[in-house]
Structures are given as C-alpha cells and as structure tokens.
Design a protein that fits this description.
The complex is a heterodimer of chains A (about 325) and B (about 280).
Chain A lengths: L8 H4 L7 H17 L7 H27 L7 H17 L4 H23 L4 H21 L1 H4 L5 E2 L5 E2 L2 E2 H5 L1 H24 L1 H11 L1 H6 L5 H26 L1 E2 L6 H14 L6 H16 L6 H15 L3 H13 L6
Antiparallel strand pairs in A: 1-4, 2-3
Helix pairs in contact in A: 3-9, 3-12, 3-13, 3-14, 4-5, 4-6, 4-12, 5-12, 9-10, 9-12, 13-14, 13-16, 14-16
Chain B lengths: L1 H28 L6 H44 L7 H23 L15 E4 L2 E4 H23 L1 H11 L1 H6 L4 H23 L9 H16 L4 H21 L6 H13 L9
Antiparallel strand pairs in B: 1-2
Helix pairs in contact in B: 1-2, 1-4, 1-5, 1-7, 1-8, 1-9, 2-3, 2-7, 2-8, 4-5, 5-7, 8-9, 8-10
The chains are: A mainly alpha (about 325), B mainly alpha (about 280).
Chain lengths: ~325, ~280
C-alpha cells in the first residue's frame, strides 16, 4: 500500500533492540546540542527564527502524530493551536486568574473541547474527517472575526500578562535567547513522550485500528476510545504550541486560527514524513528556515510550497524523515528501514 | 421574511452548484477535490477578465469553456494517474494545486478585491411583498433551478447519466459491464469544474473577487456534501437548500455566531445519521 498516511506495520514495529541504540544516541545528542544553541553566539534574529521553528515543530508533531497513529489528516489543528492562544488572551482579559493558572488551564480547556469534537468527527471516515476538521476550524476563525466585542475581530488582542510567571520575569518568555530553551525543552519532552506512546501496546493497538478497524474490533478491542485518546493527545500538543506562541509573542490574531495555518502544519508534517514521530519536527525546521531564506528572493513562497508538497507526496512518501532513516540505516549497517 | 428566504435561496443555489460539482467528481473518482474552491475562484476571475472584452455573458461562456478544459486536464493529469494510490494522496495533491492556483491568481490580478458590475439587463429591482429585490438575485435562483433540472434530467433519463449513476455506486463493476469509465470521468470532472466556474462567475456581482474567496465556499460546500451523504446528488440538493437558509438567517438574526450554525447543524446530522441525509454505499 503506497500511502503517505500509513507507515507500514514493519516501520511501526521496527525491531525493538536492534539498531535502536543508534537512534537513541542521535536523538539524545540532538536534544542536548539544541540546548547549547543560545550560548554559542548565534545572531539574535536566527535565534528568534529557531524559536518560532520549534513552536511550529510542536504543532507539526501533533498533526503528524495523528496521521501516523490514526491515519487521519487534520486540516483543522489551527483550532486547537490558535484556540489555546485565544483562550489565554480571553482568560487574561475577562478574569483575574493568576497567569500561571491561565497558562495551564488553556491547553486543558482545549483538550476538553478536543474530546467532544473528536467524539463527533470520529463518527466519519478518513476523507470526511479531513473535510469536517477544516469546516470546524474555519467556523471558529469566522466566530472570532465576526464577534468583535468578544475578541476584537481581525485586529487581535494584546495579552497583558503579569510581570512574573512561574517566578520568572515575563521578558524571560518573550526574548528568543531564553524562550528558545523553553520551546526546545517542550519539543524534546513531547517527542520523547510520543515515541514512548507509539512504542507501547496502546500505540500498536491504534496502528492496528488504523490499518483495519473491523479486524481490531473482531479481535475484541474497542476501537472508538483509542482513536479519541490519540486525537485528544494530538490536540493537547497543538494547544501547547499555541500556549507557547501566546507567551512568546504576547498577542493573538485570527491568523492563528486560519485554515492556512492548519494546512501549513499538515504540509510540514507530510514533507517531514509521518512514518516517524520526530520527522515532522525536522520538517518544521527545514520549512521555517527555507521560508525565511526564500523570502529574500521571491514572493511566490506559496507556489513553491504547493509544488514541493505535490513532489514529496508523489516521489518521497516517507518525507525527509524517511530519507534520513534510510541514510542512517546504511550508515549504521542495518538492512532496510 | 419572504425576502430573507429568497436571499437564502440565492446562497443555497450557488452552494448547490459548487457542491454538486464536488459530488460528481467524488462519484466517479472517489476523491475529494480540495482544489474545488480554487476552481470556483479561478472561474470568477476568468469570467471577470474575459468580461472586460466580451461583456458579462461572453465572459461567462469563456469561463465555462476554459474551466471545462481545465477539468478534463485535471482528470487526465491528476486523478487518473493517482487513482490506485491512497485517497489521502489525491487530497494532498489537490491541496497543493489549490495553493499554486491561489498564488497565480494573486500574481496576475493582485490581492485587492475586485468588484464586478451586474449585467445591465438585470441591474434593476422588482417589488416583492412591498420591498425591492434585485432582479439579478432572482436570476441566480433561476440559474440554480436550471442546473438542478438539467442535471436531474441528464442523470435520470440519458444513457450517460445512467453510467454516471452506476459508476458512482461501483465504478469497477460499471467498467466490467463495458462502460468506458475513464472517458466518462473526463467528461464528468470537466462538467464538475465547469459548474464550479459557473458558480464563481454568477456569484461575482454579488460578492467581491479576491484570491481567498474560494476557501469559504469550499468549507460550506464540504458541510453540504457531508450532510447530504458523500456522493449523493439529491442529498446535496436538500443540504444546500437548508444550509443556504441557515447561513442567511444566521447572518440576519445572529450575526456574531452565524458561522457556527451550519456547523452545529452538521453536528446534529452526524449524531443522528452518521452517513448523512441520503445514505450512499
């Protein structure tokens, strides 16, 4: 089955033990090296770019994980990402809750919504899910645009955080050289947890359901709840990304909810590759940096993205991650991937 | 009130013309064409550009012809080579096409909105129960009715229509009976894109042109197609009528939350009947 939405079963079960040490070593190395980046004298704007890239990476990881574990391509994750950012902005504006509570409550609020939404959307099959996730998210966007009294329409909202959050100065979260440490840490933890989930029995079960729901049900498993859990987990991670965005930038605009953002996250995940948990994050760094470079030369970034998406889907169904894995395996002396 | 219902019919009619194109393409190719909103937008722009030389109606004809050709090309160059791949592959490829198309329109005509004048013949208003109503809107309703009747007659009473219906139930078996589904698909996808273009052109005097105009229509037509039951022609018809009314009444009476209403309706339908109004396959 030549599909980008299903890493083969072989990939999912990639021999525990053999070769895993190499991956673990590379992963730990990259994670640790990342924390050193702010201290090696990188220019400020590059650090700012890397900070945005790691936030994009969190969102793309969420979208890619949903494709990997459930075979569902969401065109609506901006609703969770922007939704969390807006939840923070609105809670700060309309309540006097401490900032810490707001920052923690926003993603949880979104997960609650995510569960409700998933119970409805998961009644449909794969393609209808894509269509409806798009419709659902765009309705939230329109709501924010039209209900000006609620969230100031297209002008967005500035978030008036307290001076200190979690005992740290607000500027700690709003400067790239310190915020990068936070976003990178969240990204690393998210990927580590997702790798564990995907390798657990539960992760294998969700892949079995993805490949053949009827068969999984026949084997005696309940098939709705595992999918709800995966979607809720994915929503939570997207919401974490939105929370970090709100902290870092201190403002929200409706573009955080627009479907182009959802589409972009899905494109990043596909270009990165959805066979591995970490690949969408790699895709995000490549994407954000290339976009920045391309911005100097052309205004037709959108066409480039469209063409690259088509090319990757047709010729490189496992994305950049698939290519990297193949390379590492050759390097590590392991046959097929 | 009557005026509001008529306005809802205008919107529902346009939505039907776009959605039925999606249904036609889904029926033969089992793919959801994410570029469909882009085709609607492109049709509107082509109609506008050609309209500068040939007048509104000339522009409409040019747009229909070009969009039909584009549809044939789309089927031949995209849907046919991808038919053995996973459905999601085609969805993502059409999504890529949408991005390129929006960017091209942006490059050629700019990002600013363009307003299109109503065709002179239909520029006036008529009195309906004491309030003025633009004749052009009545014309849009009439066009939608013609499309409904034309399609229904074609699908129910012609040989090609029989093939299309058979093929949307089971393309493989239809092919085994000797129907050339590949050729049929060229025509049907061409028809579907021409309908998207038709809707774009007739909508253009009512709403300004912009490269992003396609996405809002795409989203509501998705709701229509899902509520109607993926692949069902009659389902799409009733769903478009209902969504048209809900959309319009929402804007008038509950402007703040109007965008949520079609969605809520969809949620209710999905809970009661997961496969939509009209069950297909």
């Amino acid at each position: 089955m030549s599909s980008i939405s299903s890493p083969s079963v072989r990939g999912a079960q990639a021999a525990p033990g053999q070769g895993i040490g190499l991956y673990l070593a590379i992963g730990c190395l990259v994670a640790v090296l990342g924390f050193a980046l702010p201290f090696v004298g990188l220019p400020k704007n590059l650090l700012a770019l890397l900070t945005s890239a790691s936030i994009s990476a969190i969102l793309a990881t969420a979208v890619g994980f949903l494709v990997r574990q459930a075979g569902l391509s969401s065109f609506g994750h901006a609703a969770f990402y922007g939704g969390a950012a807006y939840a923070i902005a609105l809670l700060v504006k309309y309540t006097s809750l401490p900032a810490e509570v707001v920052v923690l409550a926003a993603p949880l609020l979104i997960v609650g919504l995510g569960v409700v939404v998933s119970l409805i959307l998961l009644r449909t099959n794969g393609i209808a899910f894509s269509m409806l996730s798009l419709a659902m998210a765009q309705a939230v966007y329109e709501l924010v645009m039209k209900w000006r009294d609620l969230a100031n329409g297209e002008d967005g909202l500035r978030i008036r955080f307290a001076r200190e959050i979690f005992g740290l100065k607000l500027s700690f979260f709003q400067k790239a050289d310190t915020m990068f440490l936070v976003t990178w840490a969240v990204l690393v933890v998210v990927i580590a947890i997702l790798v564990l989930v995907s390798r657990s029995n539960f992760g294998t079960l969700t892949i079995a359901i993805k490949n053949n729901e009827e068969r999984a049900r026949f084997l005696g498993y309940r098939t709705l709840w595992p999918r709800v859990v995966i979607l809720a987990l994915s929503a939570l991670i997207a919401a974490l990304g939105g929370t970090l965005f709100a902290l870092y930038n201190g403002y929200v605009t409706p573009s955080l909810l627009h479907w182009t953002l959802s589409g972009e996250a899905l494109i990043i995940a596909i270009i990165g590759g959805t066979r591995s948990v970490w690949a969408p994050a790699v895709g995000a760094f490549v994407f954000v940096i290339l976009r920045d470079v391309a911005g100097n030369y052309t205004t037709h970034w959108q066409s480039i993205v469209g063409l690259v998406l088509i090319a990757v889907v047709l010729t490189l169904p496992n994305g950049i991650g698939g290519a990297l894995t193949a390379f590492t395996n050759r390097f590590g002396g392991r046959q097929n991937g | 009130m009557l005026i509001q219902i008529l306005n809802g019919l205008v919107y529902g009619g346009m939505l039907y013309i776009v959605s039925v194109g999606l249904v036609l393409i889904f029926g033969l190719r089992r793919v959801v064409n994410f570029a469909h909103g882009g085709l609607y937008m492109l049709g509107a722009y082509i109609g506008f550009a050609a309209g500068l030389y040939f007048g509104f109606w000339g522009g409409l004809v040019v747009a229909l012809v070009l969009m039909a050709l584009l549809g044939v090309l789309l089927d031949y160059g995209v849907f046919r080579p991808l038919q053995d791949k996973d459905h999601m592959t085609t969805v993502l490829v059409t999504f890529g096409i949408l991005l390129v198309m929006e960017d091209m329109v942006h490059m050629i005509w700019g990002a600013d909105t363009i307003s299109v004048a109503m065709p002179a013949l239909f520029d006036g208003t008529v009195d309906i129960s004491g309030s003025p109503f633009p004749i052009y809107r009545l014309l849009v309703i009439a066009v939608a009715i013609v499309v409904v009747l034309g399609l229904t007659l074609w699908l129910r009473h012609s040989r090609a229509g029989l093939y299309v219906r058979a093929s949307s139930v089971d393309a493989l078996t239809t092919g085994m009976q000797g129907v050339d589904t590949e050729r049929l698909s060229l025509a049907v996808v061409g028809l579907g894109t021409a309908l998207a273009g038709l809707s774009g052109v007739i909508a253009s005097p009512l709403m300004a042109l912009s490269p992003a105009m396609g996405s809002s229509v795409l989203i509501e037509s998705f709701i229509v197609v899902v509520i109607g039951g993926l692949g069902s022609f009659s389902g799409a018809f009733f769903a478009a009528l209902v969504i048209g009314q809900v959309h319009n009444l929402g804007i008038v009476y509950l402007p703040n939350v109007s965008s949520m209403l079609p969605l809520l309706l969809m949620v209710v339908v999905l809970i009661l009947k997961p496969s939509g109004f009209a069950r297909s396959h």
